[in-house]
Amino acid sequence: MYYESVIKNSMVVAANGTVNSDIGITNGKIAAIDSNLDGKHVVNAEGLVALPGGIDSHVHISQPSGPGVEMADDFETGTRSAACGGNTTILPFCLPEQGQTLREAVAAYRKKAEGKCMTDVSFHLIVNDTDPVTIGQDLPALIQAGYTSFKVFMTYANLALSDRQILEVMAVAKEHNAMIMVHAENEDAIEFLRDKAELIGDTGPFYHAPTRPIPVEREATHRAISLAEIAGVPLTIVHVSNGETTEEIQRARQRGLKVFAETCPQYITLTAEDLDRAGFEGAKYVCSPPPRSAQEWPKIWDGIQNKTFDIFSSDHCPFRFNDSAGKDAPGARQSFRNIPNGIPGVETRLPILFSEGVVQKRISLDHFAAITATNHARLYGLYPRKGAIAVGADADVTLWDPSLTKPIRQSDLHHGSDYTPWEGFEVTGWPVYTILRGITIMKDGQPIGSPIGQHLERGVADVL
Ligand code: URP
Ligand code: ZN
Ligand code: ZN
Predict the structure, then answer these.
(1) Using an 8 Å Cβ cutoff, are 297 and 381 in contact?
(2) In this structure, which ligand is nearest to the CA of 343?
(3) Strand duo 87-94 + 2-14: pairing
(4) What is the pLDDT of residue 463?
């Protein structure tokens, strides 16, 4: 056989085991994993590790974020940054603007993304209303059309749903086999703590963390799981930040419930002390849930190692720092309440986990593949087309140099933000090629070629 492309001589972390092998690619699909393959285009991958192209299933791009506030990434820069960080697919969120229906919002996001993407893209929906059109018409139609997952919020004034509303959304998920993702933080408790903090003049970025303490997340997680139990649906708890919340998830699983869980790089590398950096610098680290203390890191690692966490995502939610449309929004220096929530991370998620996880021997390469690609594909209805190196799958492969050591630097990144929370963070193991459906889209940290990313319709999660 003569293949269109061949990746030669890498250590291939394939679905059925790790082998030193070649990968033969034809028509954008993996056609063979074997030795001595020949092809028209050859990538010499001696000394490199071939892993499934990263799937980042928690990314915010071009999402409305309040009056005068703008996200730092559009689909061009967001997917460029994703590709340079070793990703071949991302799943951003689709949030309706005021007065827009969910279906109109999806059409608007599809238009914004059309022709701009370097990686493949598929949208989760955000359900911020439970009016009869959303619940009775739009959601069922959109699930049918391949938007098979949606996020509900228990916090943020204009996004949070009541428990009753969450149950209504869960009922739709149950009827139509969709996956519910929950942002679990108790909004009333946060408001109470924020008002108290502001009254005594505790208004700097640091106070974002103590006004969203661990019990706020632990309680909401317990409640979300209970609501899912009442509705009879599986659910995914996203961006888990601490040990007690991890235990809630473990307890629910012990009771036989189908609860899936996600964590992110910020919860194994950043702390609430970062929010206390001099001047307004702490604003760079404002995200929700907030980074906790370093004592929580080993608890999150335990959760990764014992597979409480199915997926490791970035929660990329980029704002510029030196910008009144970003972290320096009107009122942000007067109160942490007005600092846009979120940090950039789509380009650094995989290198951080490779370095801290694989190189530090906390997780195996197989486990890395599972929590950065395979499980995302399975949870969100993209498997087996995406998420694994296997014959018949899309030829989405990231080649890693496992010994390349350099610090993370904003000047090397490709996102639209003007900073990275991980400036100077030392990483060993970097992606050096990102290959999407057989085509190289990143080489040696630089984007290559035109935007060939496609929109992906998704099926039902294979874990449901
Ligand atoms: O602070 C965060 N995480 N912003 C992004 C929105 C969300 O809640 O995921
Ligand atoms: Zn969230
Ligand atoms: Zn998010």
Answers:
(1) no
(2) 1
(3) unpaired
(4) 82
Domain count, the chain: 2
Asked, for residue 456, whether it belongs to a domain, the answer is no
* pLDDT number for residue 1: 84
- Residues 289-302 have pLDDT tens digits of 999 999 999 999 99
Pocket test for ligand 1, best of 58, 190, 317, 339 (most atoms within 8 A of CB): 317
Is residue 400 within 8 Å of 354, Cβ to Cβ? yes
The average pLDDT across 337-366 equals 98
Token pair 């993304």 in the structure block, residue: 113
CB 420 within 8 A of CB 363: no
Please give the C-alpha separations between residue 213 and each of 185, 208, 253, 407, in angstroms, as whole numbers: 9, 9, 24, 31
Average pLDDT of the chain to the nearest whole number: 98
- For residues 139 and 249, membership in a common domain is answered with yes
CB 250 within 8 A of CB 304: no
Say if residue 96 is preceded by a cis peptide, omega within 30 of 0. no
Tell me the per-residue pLDDT of 137-160, one tens digit each, with 9 for 90 and over: 999 999 999 999 999 999 999 999
Query: Coil, helix or strand for 78?
Result: helix
pLDDT (0 to 100) of residue 451: 98
Residue 136 CA: distances (Å) to CA of 49, 129, 132, 304: 47, 12, 5, 38
Q: Give the pTM.
A: 0.98
Report residue 174 as tokens: 């149950």
- Is the per-residue pLDDT at 447 higher than 80? yes
Range of the domain at 232: 54-359
Helix residue ranges per DSSP H, 48-160: 75-84, 102-113, 132, 139-144
Percent of the chain predicted with pLDDT > 70: 100
What is the distance in A from the centroid of ligand 1 to the CA of 310?
19
Q: Answer whether residue 464 shows pLDDT above 70.
A: no
Q: Are residues 315 and 403 in the same domain?
A: no
Residue nearest ligand 1's atom 5 by CA: 342
Same domain membership, residue 352 and residue 424: no
Residues lining ligand 1, CB < 6 A? 60, 183, 239, 287-288, 315, 317, 341-342
Residue type, 456: L
Q: Within its chain, how far is the Cα of 302 from the centroid? A: 20
Q: How far is CA 347 from CA 49, 161, 255, in A?
A: 18, 31, 37
Phi, psi at 298, each rounded to 5°: -65, -25
In sequence order, the 6+-apart residues with CB closer than 8 A to the CB of 131 are none
Residue 462 has pLDDT above 90, yes or no: no
Are residues 42 and 111 both part of a single domain? Answer: no
Q: Which atom of ligand 1 is nearest to the CA of 288?
A: 1
Residue 94 alpha carbon to ligand 1 centre in Å = 13
Residues 94-128: tens digit of each pLDDT? 999 999 999 999 999 999 999 999 999 999 999 99
